[in-house]
Amino acid sequence: MIPFYIGEVMRRKTEQLEKERRAARALEKLTEPETDLIVVTDDGKPVGVFTHSEAVKLVEEQKDPSSTTLGDCSLSPVVTIGESENVETAAAIMEEQGLKYLLVEKANKIVGYLTDRDISTALSEVNEK
């Protein structure tokens, strides 16, 4: 058993952009070192996630990021988990759904995200102790 909860290992900074924003803006954000994904919102509510995989799809679909809105992009689904859940539960959901991340929520608000890399890092730190 892994002795920690998602709130202990998740990333607390989430980038959010409204679906009317241009894909070019999301691409700029993804170049920042601490940004792995962009939560795409509609009137403040999450409707999808833009990641590096969606950037590849833009190229594949030959869409111009400067004229394509995030709402017109293929987006990853919004899959959430509670901040107080344990990492084993998160890992099971990620494996079952073939995801590399989960959005983390508290009181029905997105407060961060958890990646497969975060789980690997936490496991590594436990093994070092």
Low-confidence stretches: none
Intertermini distance: 15 Å
Q: Which strand order do you get reading across the main beta sheet?
A: 1-2-3
Class by alpha and beta content: alpha/beta
**What is the typical, i.e. mean, pLDDT?**
91
Q: Provide the succession of SSEs.
A: HEHEEHEHEEH
Number of helices: 5
Helix content: 25-40%
Total E-strand runs: 6
Strand content: 25-35%
CATH topology, anyone?
CBS-domain
Indicate the multimeric state.
single chain
CATH domain class name: Alpha Beta
The CATH architecture: Roll
Please give the largest β-sheet: 3 strands, mixed
Features of the shown structure:
3-stranded mixed β-sheet, 35% helix, 26% strand, elongated
What does this structure look like?
The structure is a single chain. This protein is α/β, with parallel strands linked by helices. The protein has a single domain (6-128), classed as Roll (CBS-domain). The chain contains five helices and six strands; from the N terminus they run αβαββαβαββα. The strands form two sheets. A three-stranded mixed sheet has the order 1-2-3. The protein has a three-stranded mixed sheet with strand order 4-5-6. A hairpin with a 2-residue loop joins strand 2 (37-42) and strand 3. The chain is elongated and about 45 Å long. The model has no long low-confidence stretch (mean pLDDT 91).
